[in-house]
Amino acid sequence: MPKAAPMTPIRRRKLIYSYAPDWALTIVLAAFFFSLDKVDGYRRVFSLEDSSIRHPYAVHERVPNVALYFICFVAPFLIMPIVNFITVRSWWDFHNSSLGLILGLSMTGSLTQIVKITVGRPRPDLLDRCKPPPGLTDPPYGSTDWTVCTQTDNGILRDGFRSFFSGHSSMSFAGLGFLAYYLAGKVHLFDNRGHASKAWLALSPFMAASLVAISRTMDYRHHWQDVLVGSLVGTFFAFFTYRQYYPPLSSELSHRPYSPRIKREDNDRAVLPTHIDQFNGQTNIGNRHQYSDSTDDHFELAGTVPRPPGPGRLENVWKQGAGSPDLSQEDVVAGGSANIQSTSGGAFVPLRNPGTTMT
């Protein structure tokens, strides 16, 4: 197997420029997440007779915010390099895992804060935070608002209207969920063989995240719906960001990260990419639309998985079918970019199987 070409200064510069927006986005989202914490959001009306918000206010939480940051970020950030060293020993794997983890947490945190301050759902301990005057009752045919509260600490009162959805649940499932997917990929959990040890290892982060989520109901910080939705949101973003930088867990190369999304330099290509004509079975050299399924290390960085070929530049994709009345949406979806040929006039027409009868 040919060895990968050495990293040139030009390619290294292109690599940095290619992923700089990703890191910038994570930093902006993280700053946005922390900036929303002091915002006075919407505060829903409530009933003084509602038993679901009459629980005691826990001064000391089982999982405070500092512990949450260690659980959802520090722990995965330290564990993944250790797994990397034991398994693939790849600096690019370290880059992808770190970027995916931070991006998932920042996206989860930003969405969580936005929903919290706009929904304004009372927490289960709201009345204990509010401290309404003794003997106060709801107005006839109405509800009570936060202005009746005698609580002098605005921070405690403001936080009392941020029940939906649980930030501890979403953040813990986003961070530990990403770690779970990372471990599942490294041990090839879905290799159709079935190993209990692999299942326990890969799912253990989800168990830890579940304990964090359950603790929020024990402290009467959240209703069960808040915890459930937060857990689902965190799991979704963990999977979403993992799949941006890693192949499917069912892949035979699930232990490797995706290769960089920049093209190799021409003088680095030892072997030309090949294109398999799916209609006549012929091999065409140099076609850039659909590469073979080769997973040799010389394709990109050593120890990475080649990214699936995309549809091309967006401006070209958007122009597909322009000026061609014979090209329908069904042709584009069914045929894909491999079945579309560019004409001299700039329009795209579908390439049909010779055995297909046109009506």
From TrEMBL:
> One Gene Ontology cellular component annotation?
membrane
Subcellular location as annotated? Membrane
Cross-referenced SUPFAM superfamilies: Acid phosphatase/Vanadium-dependent haloperoxidase
Residue intervals passing through the bilayer = 16-36, 66-87, 99-119, 164-184, 196-215, 227-246
- Please, which domain of life does this record's source organism belong to? Eukaryota
Q: Where is the Phosphatidic acid phosphatase type 2/haloperoxidase domain?
A: 98-242
Gene3D superfamilies in the record, alphabetically? Phosphatidic acid phosphatase type 2/haloperoxidase
**Record keywords:** Membrane, Transmembrane, Transmembrane helix
- Kindly give the membrane topology term recorded for this protein: Multi-pass membrane protein
* Coiled-coil features, chain-numbered ranges: none
Q: What is its main location?
A: membrane
Tell me the InterPro entries matching this sequence. Answer: PAP-like (IPR043216), PAP2/HPO (IPR000326), PAP2/HPO_sf (IPR036938)
* GO process annotations (BP): phospholipid dephosphorylation; phospholipid metabolic process
Q: What Gene Ontology molecular-function terms does this entry list? A: phosphatidate phosphatase activity
PANTHER family for this protein? LIPID PHOSPHATE PHOSPHATASE, RE23632P
What family name appears in the similarity comment? Belongs to the PA-phosphatase related phosphoesterase family.
Name of the featured protein: Phosphatidic acid phosphatase type 2/haloperoxidase domain-containing protein
Species this protein is from: Psilocybe cubensis
